[in-house]
Amino acid sequence: MRCRKGLLPESICRYVSLFDHPLQRNTPLEEVRFVIFDTETSGFDLVRDRILSIGAVAMNGSKIDVADSFEVLLRQEAIGGKEAVSVHGILKRDLNQGLEEDEAVCRFLDYLGNGVIVAHHADFDIAMVGRVLSRRYGIKLFNEALDTASFAKRLEKGPYYNLAHKSGEYRLDNLCERYGICLYDRHTAPGDAYLTAQLFQRLLAVGRKAGIDTLGKLLLK
Fold first, then answer.
1. Residue ranges of the Exonuclease domain (predicted)?
2. pTM of the complete model
3. pLDDT digits (tens, 9 = 90+) for 38-47
4. Cα separation of 40 and 55, whole Å?
5. What letter does residue 188 receive in the DSSP assignment?
6. How confident is the model over 133-171, as pLDDT tens digits?
7. How far apart are CA 126 and CA 113, in angstroms?
8. What does DSSP say about strands 51-60 and 33-41: parallel, antiparallel, or unpaired?
9. I want to staple 104 with a disulfide (CB 3.0 to 4.6 A). Which of 16, 85, 99, 156 is the partner?
10. Domains, the chain, ranges and CATH?
11. Phi/psi at 86 (nearest 5 deg)?
C-alpha cells in the first residue's frame, strides 16, 4: 500500500511503510517482537462506543520487556456511565486530561511498529483500533495477530475444538488461574496487557514442546 504523503500524518506513513517487507514465516520466535496490548472501552458496541485507554508491553521472543511498554488515556466525551467507571476506574476528569483520539492512536502505531499483535479475545481490541484508523485515515492495522484465548484452546484441546461451546474456560481470569498467574491490576489496559503477556509467555513454553518454534507455525500460516 502506498501512503498518501501530504494527506496523512508522517507517523501513519511511517507505519504503512513498515509492511513493504512482511515478516517471514520461517522467522524463529526468539527473533520476533510481540506487542501484547489491551484496550479499555466505554462498551462493546463497535459503532457507538469509544476507546478510553490503550496499554501494551513488548516481548522479545519469550522475554517480557517491561521497559518497552506503552500506556495512553484518550480524551472522550462520554465513558459509558457508572458501570464503566466501576469496571475500569477511569473517571471523566481522567479522560479530560487524555490525548485526542488521533494523536493517541498515532503514538500507539509508532510504538507498535511491525510487531506481532497479541491480545486476549483479540478481534475486539483490533476492531476498536481499526475503526479509529479507518474513520480518520482510511487504513487498517496491518500487523500479524494472535489471540491468546484461541492459542490456549489450540494447545489444550487441539485445533478443532469449538471455543464457543465452552468459552468460560478461556476467559483471562480462568486461564491466569490455570497457569499460576496472580491476578493484579485487572480491568485496566496496562494491567490486562501485562497479565496477557505472562499468559502468552507460558503458552509459548508449552508450544515449544509441541514444535512451535517459528512465526509460521505459531500463526498456522
1. 33-209
2. 0.89
3. 999 988 899 8
4. 8
5. S
6. 999 999 999 999 999 999 999 999 887 666 565 568 899
7. 15
8. antiparallel
9. 99
10. 27-204 (3.30.420.10)
11. -65, -30
